[in-house]
Specification:
Order of helices and strands: EHHEEEEEEEEHHHEHH
Radius of gyration: 38 Å
Strand content: 15-25%
Number of helices: 7
CATH superfamily of the largest domain: Band 7 domain
Protein name: Regulator of protease activity HflC, stomatin/prohibitin superfamily
GO molecular function: peptidase activity
Keywords: Hydrolase, Membrane, Protease, Transmembrane, Transmembrane helix
Distance between the termini: 96 Å
CATH class of the largest domain: Alpha Beta
Pfam families: Band_7
Number of strands: 10
Length: about 280
């Protein structure tokens, strides 16, 4: 069903006309002219059933004996088709906060995830006539899309390759919004934003995954420390040889490299040892 504009005329002019018909009909009835007076009264009351007040950011879908007549969107007082069934739809921007869902990521790990969806109705005919209740439709489809997107990614990418739910929230949100738009266009709903509001490992594996994250962080930090230490040792050796402070053979150089690396990489402060002898 595609939305179209319903027939309507200015409601204020219609009210003046109805009052004139009503007053004229009553006057004729008082004069005992029932043949003309009663039909005028009935006509005025019949036209009154077509009066509609449209509030800002609200629309009405009109259905007359099973036929879709159109939609009134413009705020104001209007006279439309009498006896038509009116279905009001809010056009305001609204939020939907999904429940915290437990799903398995692409690696099979149970993950708790939730999202907020910002949407509004853009086609009232589809929202009222093509789906049973568009609010419930938005809720179910949002949770379905969230589950589907969550199963495409890992919670965290420890190897640093590809996207992950925790490491790429912008990309995941964009994909979630695009999938939601495809699902909700049937209900005449436009999705303006979709964001993850909760993301965590399920309680049954949270402890183990925390240890894995800590181990990964320690390894990454150690790698940075070792790379920096090697660079510092290399600079020290080159500076000593360049300035001619002392002539180092391969054995002394290896000993110095060992001592410097231990001193830099060690978590505890090193204790100096004064060597008064010789290596040979």
């Amino acid at each position: 069903m595609i939305e179209k504009k319903a027939w309507a005329v200015n409601g204020y002019l219609a009210l003046i006309l109805m009052l004139a018909l009503l007053i004229g009909g009553i006057a004729l009835v008082v004069q005992e002219n029932f043949v003309v007076g009663i039909p005028l009264i009935i006509l005025s009351l019949f036209l009154a059933t077509g009066i509609i007040v449209v509030q800002p950011n609200k629309s009405y879908t009109l259905v007359f004996f099973g036929s879709y007549l159109g939609t009134l969107r413009e705020p104001g007082l209007w006279l439309s088709v009498p006896l038509a069934i009116r279905k009001g739809v809010s056009l305001r921007v609204r939020n939907f906060n999904s429940k915290t869902l437990k799903v398995n990521d692409i690696e099979g790990n149970p993950v708790e995830i939730a999202a907020v969806v910002v949407f509004r109705v853009v086609d009232t005919a589809k929202a009222t006539l093509d789906v049973e209740k568009y609010e419930g439709f938005v809720e179910i489809q949002s949770e379905t899309a969230l589950r589907h997107v969550a199963t495409r990614y890992a919670y965290d990418n420890f190897e640093g390759k590809g996207f992950s739910l925790r490491g790429n929230p912008e990309e995941v949100s964009t994909e979630l919004m695009n999938e939601l738009q495809q699902r909700l266009k049937l209900a005449g709903v436009e999705v303006t934003e979709a964001r993850l509001t909760h993301l965590a490992y399920a309680t049954e594996i949270a402890g183990a995954m925390l240890q894995r994250q800590q181990a990964s962080a320690i390894l990454s930090a150690r790698q940075i420390i070792v790379e920096g230490a090697v660079g510092m040792v290399q600079m020290a050796i080159e500076r000593i040889e360049k300035d001619g402070v002392v002539k180092l053979d391969e054995e002394r150089k290896a000993a110095m490299i060992n001592n410097l690396l231990v001193s830099i990489v060690s978590e505890r402060s090193s204790q100096p040892v004064i060597n008064t002898g010789t290596m040979y």
